[in-house]
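Internal QA ticket QA-208
Title: Verify multi-chain structure generation after dependency bump
Assignee: T.L.

Test input:
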Amino acid sequence: GDSVTQMEGPVTLSEEAFLTINCTYTATGYPSLFWYVQYPGEGLQLLLKATKADDKGSNKGFEATYRKETTSFHLEKGSVQVSDSAVYFCALSNFGNEKLTFGTGTRLTIIP
Amino acid sequence: GAGVSQSPSNKVTEKGKDVELRCDPISGHTALYWYRQSLGQGLEFLIYFQGNSAPDKSGLPSDRFSAERTGGSVSTLTIQRTQQEDSAVYLCASSSARQGAYGYTFGSGTRLTVV
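Actual output:
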């Protein structure tokens, strides 16, 4: 079945550092890929998505490129801020399937 | 309402008791989902309702778990004879039929602790 493997956390970075959170997937067909973010005390929010190979999703300075050849959707940000501290989840949805399959989440802490 | 509302936000219950968790989806959203977020386990799909279709119950972990959705709106997730391994955050999400998986809006969840 479909699965998502995420970089294990927690990840701690200094403010303005470069961020990469790795995500790889296993799926039949052509899934859509998502990154969700969960800020402390809040519900999950969609951060960005990509629906086909080579698409780049971007939002709030974060980017992720759908790489079919490496089955990856790594999340990147050039300069993180303290306010980016949260748990990040990679997820996929496969064609005709309404369900999202999530990774285990990566807790990110940014220190000033 | 403006968002997905879940209640209670926190629930502590004794092992063996039954609990009911409630989800109020966004008005007009025909799709409703329940997920479970356990420590170190990520988000686990439980059940999915779409309009008047039969729900997809394939993610329910045991027959102690059940869910219903009345009038195509509010949903209740019931856990009977709770066990300590049921402790988790239970998340509800809704989406419009048109957006499907692209349009999930999550609630803030119910944190269930079984003691």
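Spot checks passed. The interface with chain B takes residues 6, 32, 34, 41-46, 49, 51, 89, 91, 93, 97-105 of chain A (CB under 8 Å).
Status: verified.
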